[in-house]
């Protein structure tokens, strides 16, 4: 055999990986996917710290999950599902616990002495099973296809605004104003309109650097911004011993204090501690069913909205807004609720911070594999998490938010039946801190306005059904108040 027909093993493997993940087909490179995977990991790693803080408190009956155990299963579930998303669905979306659902279940168990953590995690698991069935039957994909293109674009814009707000709040650039301050303004700039503290300096440094690199079209702009900001944060912490934010130290780091902890052995004992039918036994079918419905609707549309936004930003949609491998993506997402409930880490779903990797150029599942492997390492090597504070990642989220918001020009503003629902969609996402709330308001408004215009026949039947479901979703509080459940 002549040397011209021989292919080195390394080149052959590289070519197979390229074809499998469609790296060249999607106009990406191995180095770009690697950078994207690392950027996504740093942008989302805070969830391993934050989720335990949300979930580890005692339930009303005295049960407690524990911070270390929740942290371990949070990282484990995110890692496994993200790797599956990369290898099987071949998509650049990371998976992790959804902050909307975990906050809801935490409030539920903290205020209701009749149910325990295993009971409410059982509801999450059941919601995941139902969603898995909806994907297998094609219902979830059909709902996605029934959404008008302008509303899909509005979802992208809304998620961009949501990501930007998350970044600004995480950095402390925008802060909630306590009710005790005697003002009706909910948020403001820094401390009483002033930017104070070294963490803000880190954020501003990262934001300006990232913008400068993007304007200069530098490769790896977002990742360089994160790494440079993290280095500065660690130097400042070492020199000034800034510490974490608290009532006594309001100008400290918002959550993660830059540090170098040692190796740790993960405690995965929460896996399997779930009671699928406990809530029904303790609350009754109606009350437990309503809770499960709220969880189902939230994870259903949070994930769908996030997927639409990220796929559009990555340029993975066709001219009709369809997404490649959408059924596989949705199946992995549905599995996230099942696995999250079964491990007491709450529902895992497509994580909006995947936009950091996509903004870096990630377009394939290889970036997700990189992110997932880093999450596995993070179970043991905690410095991977604690080296990067919120303030170092926040600039990436603000910049990605800008990229997504720029699609607002694609909305059909001449048709008020599309423009008003689109406006409600992208404004309510950040203002209510919920993707599902924005989508629900937009869907209801779209159906209502088309009916008022006498064009109800143009609305897909599934949109009528989903709008009715969202009316029930928003009316849960009134229903509980009127029925006493």
Q: What does this entry show, briefly?
A:
The protein has 485 residues and is mostly helical. It has helices at residues 9-21, 30-44, 47-55, 67-87, 99-111, 117-136, 139-146, 149-171, 198-215, 221-240, 278-283, 285-314, 326-342, 354-359, 365-378, 383-386, 390-405, 416-432, 435-452, 461-474, 476-483; strands at 95-97, 174-176, 187-189, 348-350.
Question: How is this structure best described in words?
Answer:
By secondary structure, the chain is mostly helical. A two-stranded antiparallel ribbon has the order 1-4. Strands 2-3 form a two-stranded antiparallel sheet. Helix 4 packs antiparallel against helix 13 and helix 8 crosses helix 12. It starts with 8 loop residues before the first helix and ends with a helix.
- Rounded mean pLDDT is 88
- Percent helix: 55-70%
What is the 3D form? globular
Strand arrangement within the widest β-sheet reads: 1-4
Query: Which H/E pattern describes the elements?
Result: HHHHEHHHHEEHHHHHEHHHHHHHH
Biggest sheet record? 2 strands, antiparallel
Number of strand elements: 4
Strand content: under 5%
Number of helices: 21
Low-confidence stretches: 1-7
Structural class: mainly alpha
Radius of gyration, whole Å? 22 Å
What is the end-to-end distance? 78 Å
Give descriptors for this structure.
485 residues; mainly alpha; two-stranded antiparallel ribbon; two-stranded antiparallel sheet; 21 helices; disordered N terminus
């Amino acid at each position: 055999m002549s040397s011209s027909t021989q292919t080195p093993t390394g080149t052959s493997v590289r070519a197979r990986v390229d074809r499998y993940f469609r790296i060249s087909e999607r106009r990406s490179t191995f180095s770009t996917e690697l950078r994207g995977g690392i950027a996504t990991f740093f942008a989302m790693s805070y969830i391993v710290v934050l989720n335990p803080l949300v979930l580890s408190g005692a339930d009303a009956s005295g049960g407690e999950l524990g911070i270390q155990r929740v942290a371990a299963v949070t990282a484990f579930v995110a890692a496994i599902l993200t790797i599956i998303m990369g290898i099987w669905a071949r998509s650049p979306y990371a998976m992790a616990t959804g902050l909307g659902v975990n906050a809801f279940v935490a409030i539920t168990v903290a205020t209701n002495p009749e149910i325990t953590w295993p009971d409410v995690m059982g509801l999450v698991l059941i919601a995941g099973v139902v969603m898995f069935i909806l994907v297998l039957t094609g219902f979830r994909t059909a709902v996605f296809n029934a959404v008008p293109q302008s509303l899909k674009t509005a979802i992208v814009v809304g998620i961009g605004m949501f990501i930007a707000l998350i970044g600004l709040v995480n950095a402390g650039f925008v802060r909630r104003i306590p009710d005790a301050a005697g003002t009706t303004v909910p948020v403001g700039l820094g401390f009483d309109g002033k930017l104070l503290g070294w963490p803000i300096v880190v954020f501003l440094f990262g934001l300006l650097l990232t913008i400068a690199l993007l304007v200069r079209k530098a490769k790896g702009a977002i990742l360089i911004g994160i790494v440079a900001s993290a280095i500065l944060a660690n130097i400042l912490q070492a020199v000034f011993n800034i510490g974490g934010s608290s009532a006594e130290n309001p100008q400290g780091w918002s959550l993660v204090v830059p540090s170098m902890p040692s190796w740790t052995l993960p405690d995965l004992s929460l896996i399997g501690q779930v009671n699928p039918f406990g809530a029904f036994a303790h609350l009754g079918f109606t009350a437990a069913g309503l809770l499960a419905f709220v969880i189902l609707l939230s994870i259903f549309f949070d994930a769908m909205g996030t997927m639409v936004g990220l796929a559009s930003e990555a340029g993975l949609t066709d001219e009709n807004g369809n997404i490649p491998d959408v059924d596989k993506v949705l199946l992995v997402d549905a599995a996230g609720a099942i696995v999250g409930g079964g491990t007491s880490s709450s529902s895992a779903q497509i994580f909006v911070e995947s936009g950091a990797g996509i903004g870096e150029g990630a377009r394939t599942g290889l970036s997700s594999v990189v992110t997932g492997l880093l999450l596995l390492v993070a179970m043991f090597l905690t410095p991977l998490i604690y080296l990067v504070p919120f303030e170092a990642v926040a600039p990436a989220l603000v910049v990605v938010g800008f990229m997504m918001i720029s699609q607002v020009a694609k909305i059909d503003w001449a048709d008020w039946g599309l423009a008003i629902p689109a406006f409600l969609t992208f404004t309510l996402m950040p203002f209510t801190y919920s993707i599902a709330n924005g989508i629900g308001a937009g869907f209801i408004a779209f159906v209502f306005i088309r009916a008022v215009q006498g064009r109800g026949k143009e609305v897909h039947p599934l949109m009528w059904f989903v709008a009715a479901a969202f009316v029930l979703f928003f009316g849960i509080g009134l229903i509980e108040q009127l029925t006493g459940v």
